[in-house]
Design goal:
It contains 5 helices and 6 strands. α2 crosses α3.
Length: about 160
């Protein structure tokens, strides 16, 4: 599988993971069987690690609380930040974990049913990990765009028409 084909396939899937193998084949100019083989290879090699749907929970009456937590940690000998980051990533409420540059080391995005659940996560799970020096929590008040997708677009063109 050529690099150009792989990159095109990955970009198409990143934009819309619901595209069928036949649609992908038509867009890439290859057979459906080639697409299926390529997808299997990309999944087995860990390049494609999953497919997911971005849900606007507010539209169905669910209002989860999402927080971004900055974590300052002490790196561990021989493994740096990895062991602590992996441990944090294994908690079910954790959506994302990022190694950061700047004033803190990790950025964590978590989602829970209410603010108390997030407070309990920080108090009883996160802060008790050896090497965690401190945390700062930021609550997400509204999502405008997530994973490249706009949640609501109320913009209308209010410019005056230009006529000769």
């Amino acid at each position: 599988m050529s690099e150009k084909f792989t990159m095109k396939l990955l970009r198409l899937l990143e934009q819309n993971s619901r595209l069928s193998a036949s649609a992908l084949a038509a867009m890439c100019g290859v057979s459906e069987e080639e697409i299926k083989d390529a997808l299997k290879t990309l999944e087995n090699d860990g390049i494609i690690i999953g497919y997911h749907t971005v849900v606007n929970w507010n539209k169905v009456g669910v209002d989860p609380v999402t927080a971004m937590i900055e974590v300052k940690i002490t790196p561990q000998r021989d493994v740096g930040f990895n062991r602590i980051a992996e441990r944090i990533a294994n908690f079910p409420e954790v959506q994302s974990v990022y190694l950061m540059s700047g004033t803190y080391d990790l950025s964590i995005i978590i989602q829970a049913s209410n603010m108390q659940a997030i407070a309990d996560f920080v108090s009883y799970k996160l802060s008790t990990i050896d090497g965690v020096q401190g945390t700062i929590s930021h609550f997400i008040l509204k999502r405008y765009k997530d994973d490249g997708l706009l949640f609501e677009s109320h913009e209308t063109d209010t410019r005056l028409a230009v006529t000769p």
